[in-house]
Specification:
Rossmann fold; 4 helices; 30% helix; 173 residues; 4 strands; alpha/beta; fatty acyl-CoA hydrolase activity
């Protein structure tokens, strides 16, 4: 594999859920990141805890806009690579759609058009490659259809924005 790396330009990052803030940070601060896929995540390095200590991710958005938390918002406008933002409207873990809207607005305000966004009505939080074992709370038809569509979209996004054709291993099946 290492012998093929001289043909590769850039790095791709994919994230799901809480790792979204990490992927955005990597893309914002490391110049070799050419393509980042962000799925149902968050855009700040902060969480809101209840009095009992539980974490309620669904309501983090209000906290990231508060003055005292502005330093936790990942500065994605610094990123040189491209983003694919994915949100499921039936995500009960995060308000993923609100995060996408906020990130798109911020990038546009900074004159950036280095993003695509895909919103899946009726799909739940844990979007992953299709045809695998499903999370018991996310196996309905809209979610399954979103996984099939998204998997193709992710592959297309990485093929378009990463020059990895020569280094790619093809399946033998």
């Amino acid at each position: 594999v290492l012998s093929h790396l001289h043909n590769v330009k850039g790095v791709g990052v994919i994230s799901l859920s809480k790792s979204g803030d990490l992927a955005l940070s990597i893309a914002s601060f490391l110049p070799d990141v050419e393509a980042t896929v962000w799925i149902n995540g968050c855009s700040a390095n902060t969480l809101v805890h209840t009095e009992s200590g539980a974490c309620i991710g669904k309501y983090v958005m209000n906290s990231t806009e508060a003055e005292e938390n502005k330093a936790t918002v990942v500065p994605i406008e610094r990123a040189k690579g491209r983003f694919l933002f994915v949100a499921a409207e039936d995500d009960l873990n995060w308000d993923s759609k609100a995060y996408v809207d906020e990130m798109v607005e911020r990038l546009q305000r900074h004159g950036k058009e280095n993003f695509e966004s895909v919103i899946y009505p009726g799909a739940g939080h844990y979007l992953e490659p299709p045809y695998g074992p499903n999370c018991p709370s996310s196996f309905h038809g809209a979610h399954a259809a979103a996984e099939v569509h998204l998997w193709k979209k992710i592959q297309e996004f990485f093929r378009t924005h990463l020059s990895c054709g020569a280094a790619q291993t093809r399946a033998k099946l």
